[in-house]
Model the fold of this input.
Amino acid sequence: MRIDKLLANMGYGTRKEVKKILKTGTVLVDGKPAKDPKTQVDPEKNEVVVHGEIVEYKEFIYLMLNKPKGVISATEDTEHETVVDLLAYEHAMFDPFPVGRLDKDTEGFVLLTNDGKLAHELMAPKKHVPKTYIATVRGRVSEEDISQFKQGVELDDGYVTKPAELIIDKQGEISTISLTISEGKFHQVKRMFIAVGKRVTELKRISIGPLQLDEELALGEYRELTEDEVELLRSHSS
Done:
């Protein structure tokens, strides 16, 4: 990899800004000044130092975001704020994208990464990665609904969902529930409840696979996954 590309990728500025830094002679590769932007380096083998600081190279980034309502699960949009718009430059420069999507009016856990292989594994229909939601539902959710969801629900287009685990947290004319599904059809959770004569009024995703949404993340906040969390995702998708 060219030294100017490496440093630009790691947040030391644009290619033009990096070239200016290189000219100062403060960038060292294995202890020797590297002034030529075309200098080839192997981030895994060569030690790169800028202003006395060792450059810790990473190829991929993995982020857990607590998406607020009104933000769309996309990398760019001309009308609405996207999940990528919520990221600081030091993370956005890796060009992460959301793995799957949450509806505009749904809150909760969105995973963003630039690791295409892992994203593909997590999204592959045959993997059946479970996702858990909590919801407020208008209508009395019953044991009959639990049984129906366990068998699979026929949606408005005739598709029958895979078995889902429905847990009633509070039962009444306004019910609160948690629901775990293993697929991601368009508006699936809302459509499942419509199929049994009820309506979701509030929806939040709280887990993807083995990972739970960090309770310390306020709406709109995010953090990088730990190495252990990334390994959990990898082992779950493999």
User: Anything to note?
Assistant: Helices lie at 3-9, 15-23, 89-92, 116-123, 143-151, 188-195, 227-237. The chain is about 25% helix and 25% strand. Residues 227-237 form the longest helix (11 residues). The mean pLDDT is 93.
